[in-house]
Amino acid sequence: MRILVVDDEPDAIELIRFNLKASGYEVLTAEDGEEALAKARKFSPDMILLDVMLPEIDGLEVCKILRRDPATASLPIIMLTAKASEIDRVLGLEFGADDYVTKPFSPRELMLRVRNLLKRKESSKEEVERFQVRDIELDVSKYEVKIMGQPIDLTPTEFKLLQILMERKGRVQSRDRLLQDVWGYDQLIDTRTVDTHVRRLREKMGEAADYVTTVRGVGYRLMEPAG
Fold it and tell me: Counting C-beta atoms within 10 Å of the first and last residue's C-beta, which end of the chain has fewer, N or C?
């Protein structure tokens, strides 16, 4: 699998490249936002590791541009953010990132996040299952979601989140349970990650957003609206 690493710090790029190659991945690199966009479009990587602080076009804007382009709308993206910049982490998720890792990070944790996200994408393609809840159709084998017959573009994380909610229709899923089942986290992570992805998912679902309901203080569930 091919991974594009975008960072303007040579030492950071070298550290990430070394660990990715040791794990068997092919690595492309870019040092600014314009180069990142050009290589994402030209080489169609399987994932992007994207630093927030970049020259020319920053990482948040790169993420937003990639999500607007149908060719890259579902490309897995992990944002790399400074530990003190909580707003960058929140904005990264708002703009469409699947996950984030704070700097300084441990290479082991980064590789775990990479594997989990790629596994999420590949497992969705390998399963042969189809779910339908009234106006929402989700075809796992085709990696396709339609609402009222119209296809919508979801990131791998959004797709997996909707799949789990549809599989467990009517059952409340706590934020901690979703972190474990969607993201693969076995430790306490900021549950606002879940809230941000649910909010983005609802926005893409349009009129069907009401199918995903909030259970105050607990989590979320997917229900058919009354009537």
Answer: C
